[in-house]
Amino acid sequence: MASCSPLLLLAVLLAVSSSPSLVPVAAQYPGDWLTHITVYMHETVSGRHATMLRSVQSPLGGNSMFGTVNVLDNELRDGPDRWASNLVGRFQGLFVGSGVVSPPGLMTSMNVVFTAGKYNGSTLALLGPVLDFEAPVERSLVGGTGRFRMARGYSVMTSVRNYTTPDSVVLVDKIDLYAKIRYQEITLTPPEKFTRESLFDE
Ligand SMILES: *[C@@H]1O[C@H](CO)[C@@H](O)[C@H](O)[C@H]1NC(C)=O
Ligand SMILES: *[C@@H]1O[C@H](CO)[C@@H](O)[C@H](O)[C@H]1NC(C)=O
């Protein structure tokens, strides 16, 4: 990097910042691709078209969060504006009130399911806590299917705006997904040479 001219660096930075969503931006490790994908989650919190609901109340009653179970099936779009963006997938999963002492944590388990674009049919699995309701939420990206087989990395979710529809508030969060994909050239047919392992000693 020391020999890199400032102009070249600027060109690289500009290319990265203007690259559209859903495009791998850098290969950083031999044999690995580091992919940065940005999607926008649109969550309708109430009303007839709610995409998130509390399915189990806390047995402790009152306002207790500990033991609650919530499920969601939110829209994923390629932009923050509902009327000027494309649907690219769903953000499906659950979050559980799992903090009995302060900080009142949530445990979240989410799948990013692509339903359009170059990753249509592929999914990413995210796992992680919410420790602070005001801060960006970081999750481990623990794996994937389809074009994301063998993926690993992390995601950062940040609230960007809220808007209202006639029967609900909709929360919009930007989700940056950073994934190392070991075989970018992955074909969807498994390699021919797998060693079949015995599940018992022979
Ligand atoms: C996504 O893939 C499914 C299954 O192959 C296909 O039916 C559907 O039309 C695709 N959607 C888009 C938007 O390309
Ligand atoms: C959107 O609403 C949520 C929940 O009320 C709030 O936590 C968040 O800060 C709001 N985001 C913005 C960008 O105003």
UniProtKB/TrEMBL annotation:
Alphabetical UniProt keywords: Apoplast, Secreted, Signal
Pfam families xref list: Dirigent
InterPro entries tied to this protein: Allene_oxi_cyc_Dirigent (IPR044859), Dirigent (IPR004265)
GO biological process: phenylpropanoid biosynthetic process
Signal peptide (residue range): 1-18
Location(s) in or outside the cell: Secreted, Extracellular space, Apoplast
Broad class of the protein's primary localization: secreted
Family note: Belongs to the plant dirigent protein family.
PANTHER family (alphabetical): NUCLEOPORIN-RELATED (PTHR21495)
Biological role: Dirigent proteins impart stereoselectivity on the phenoxy radical-coupling reaction, yielding optically active lignans from two molecules of coniferyl alcohol in the biosynthesis of lignans, flavonolignans, and alkaloids and thus plays a central role in plant secondary metabolism.
Name of this protein: Dirigent protein
